[in-house]
Amino acid sequence: MTAKLLGKTALVTGASDGLGLAASIDFVKEKADTLIMVSTNQNKLAEAKQNVSKHGTTRIITYRLDVTSEVEWRSFSDEISNDIEKLDVLVNNAGINKRDTIEDCALEDWNRIINVNQTGVFLGMKYCLDLLKKSGNASIINMSSITGLTGYYAVAYTASKWAVRGMTKSAAIEFGRYGIRVNSVHPGFISTTLTESIQPLIKASNVMNPLGRAGEAIEIAKAVSFLASDDSSYMTGSEFIIDGGLTSGGQFMAIANQLNIY
């Protein structure tokens, strides 16, 4: 490890498993000074803290937080401000999915997905802003998806991830004056608990992926650590696509292979 996060204080939402857990582990390996891990699942969060703490000496704080609740964000912001002087890194990672089409998507499910994936990012940026300003050199990383770049049949998830992409650009414009960089990360199919139910779809999609496989959570975490570090000091308002080349036009290669012309 290169200790690229030495002296930094970071907050990761949705940190109890999946991409949030992987990012938390890598932050500790990169010698972050303090790591705040947030989730709604206290039991899984406690287990995640034990796991993460094995990888270094970073001070780890866990906090139960519903990212859709403005009241909880306000309370969290006030409480954590008494414990830390500044925030250098905010990773808005918390997310859910229910893969329904427009025809099948109930309004209740639509609202739930939008609230977590979209409103949660908005509230995170809004209520962490004062602490991020105190850094003078902070980085916000918003977790979107390749579905924030193209279409996908899961309508609410797609809408939320496009929104994250747009909010990222708005925030980059607004927060630049405070020395805060804001970028979005767009994973392709990654092997996590969120994708366990669609393994057949992932395997079928691999024929269109130039690397021929799904990604691993650590491969996203490495990119998040890069964006969290000073190595990305002149990067803001950008999309970081980590999909093995899935969105680069691999479907044409797959068709050509089927026709024996490639």
Topology:
Elements: E1 9-13, H1 18-29, E2 34-39, H2 42-53, E3 59-64, H3 70-81, E4 89-92, H4 107-133, E5 138-143, H5 155-175, E6 180-187, E7 190-191, H6 199-205, E8 215-216, H7 217-228, E9 239-242, H8 250-258
Parallel strand pairs: 1-2, 1-4, 2-3, 4-5, 5-6, 6-9, 7-8
Strand order of the largest sheet: 3-2-1-4-5-6-9
Helix content, binned percent? 40-55%
CATH topology: Rossmann fold
User: What Rg is obtained from the alpha carbons, in whole angstroms?
Assistant: 18 Å
Q: What's the CATH superfamily, by name?
A: NAD(P)-binding Rossmann-like Domain
Beta-strand fraction estimate = 15-25%
What is the CATH architecture assignment?
3-Layer(aba) Sandwich
Order of helices and strands: EHEHEHEHEHEEHEHEH
Uncertain stretches: none
Number of strands: 9
Q: What is the residue-mean pLDDT, rounded to a whole number?
A: 95
Task: Classify the secondary structure makeup into a structural class.
Answer: alpha/beta
Taken from the alpha-carbon principal axes, the silhouette is globular
Count up the helices: 8
Tell me about the biggest sheet?
Answer: 7 strands, parallel
Describe this protein's structure.
This protein is an alpha/beta fold and 262 residues long. It has a single domain, classed as Rossmann fold, CATH 3.40.50.720. Helix content is 43%, strand content 16%. The strands form 2 sheets. A 7-stranded parallel sheet has the order 3-2-1-4-5-6-9, with helices on both faces. Helix 3 packs parallel to helix 4. The longest helix is centred in the middle third of the chain and has 27 residues. The chain is globular and about 65 Å long. The mean pLDDT is 95.
